[in-house]
Amino acid sequence: MIKVENLTRKFAGVIAVDRACFEVARGDIVGILGPNGAGKTTTLRILSGYLAPTSGEVSIDGLTLGEHSLEIRRRLGYLPEHVPLYPEMRVREYLKFRARLKGVPRSRIRSRLTAVTELCDLQEVAGRIIGQLSQGNRQRVGLADALIHEPQLLILDEPTIGLDPNQIRSIRQTIRNLAGRYTVVLSTHFLAEAEMVCRRVLIMHRGRIVAADTPDQLARLAAGNLCLTLEINAAPDRAETELRALPGIYEVDGGPCRPASGSAGWFVYNLKCAMEPDHRPAIFELIRRQGWLLREMHSERKNLEDVFAALTTAGEEDK
Amino acid sequence: MNACWTVFQRQLLALLRAPATYVISVTFLLVTGFSFCRLTSQTMEERLLPGDLLFGSVFFWLAAIIAMALITMSAFTEEKKSGTLEMLLTAPVTDTQVVMAKYFAALIVFLLICLPTTLYIPLLELVGGWRLMIEPAVLAGGYTALLLIGAAGLACGVCASALTRNQAAAACICFTIVSLFFFVDVFRLLLPPEAALFIEVISPAQHIMDFTQGIFDTRPVIFYISSSVFFLFATVKLLEARHWQ
Q: Which positions in chain A touch B98 (Cβ < 8 Å)?
């Protein structure tokens, strides 16, 4: 659906996007993740046709952006950061204006308005003036606008910025519901959002794409080891020795381990072990065999946040 | 074309909904009404030409220039400031269509603001109970001059609003350029005779005088239309500059 090759964009000597290359398949939900100033918004502005690249090629649905900007704009819905809207217009009036602007046939405008109003949960505010809406509802109006002409591609720049937790959850759910029907490219600051909503993640840093994969795969690549936390009732020294003796366990943290709070005889162990195979059955078997008591065992794998931190601080350390 | 018409309708509606439009309109009518009354009383003593009653006053034209600057000052500044320009220009509409839509919406509003001035003479005749015997061609000539100067001034205003994010700055740029051009006659005495001749050719005061005497010359018409096209072309280029900044 989207093919970006060596995309570079400079602003007055500053390189905002530096030879970025990526592809997005039809129906995919891709998140662009990066710290402030990483080049996410510039990349999305180029994809939306608002800015031209300094060099490089962008093609969407087989059409090159430079030559077929209007045709591409007909096929995409764009939600800029902070959702700029005309404050004096009413929601329904605004969506109708946008539908006409985007070439929705007159006979279909009414049905499209109803569809996006329902999809974005705007029924209650459809008659209200945009200037009086909450940030969450403004965001929904922006999303409805992006969807009004049934685009093949949705470009959403920080779709949940400035929203409260309930609104964030609701917008994320709406975006997830779009999966399959639309190709979605979104940028976000929130790592959890990328993990929850996106099937693929591109991590940008200083204008470059430093990693691109599924959130799970990225986490796996960076994680290497798995952390297991156990809370067992056993003699600390003996338990530590036995646990260390298990194959694949690299480290038992805190030896002697710290006592569990408020319970005599219970101790917490933090184990580091290889990701594969799963060691939990072997640990449980050991505990059962020794006659110890177990009241908690959970694993923590490194998440996207760790990957993000590793990738976006590596450059700082190099400097 | 449909997209252009849609943007034009929205822009026109936005201008008609803005309280500022009505403030501009009332102020313009007050100033022009005052100047009309003053000239009417003078006519009795000084035998002014009938066309001068409306269009012979500096106040009338100053009010018109200020109205041009104020109507167009928000055309792009507001969209840039609020970010709606990004929404607009990522829709399937060309930069030229957006500029034309905004320009014609401003032109329509300007003409609507000027429309009540056509009632001044019939009102005076109704209230005074006597006929002024003004040739329709004289009035038509005066309004043609107003339309042409307005068209060029508004194009200049739209261009100024694409230059900056600040409405006041846009209005000042437009007012300065249009009023410098309008009072270009002042410089005639300072320049060599060849340049003075050129100023006479482009002088709006001269054009207004010709038009209000019923002389219809195509040269000023082409001049003002070309000026409008030049400013609108410059506006499109200013918008396109976002790609290369």
A: none
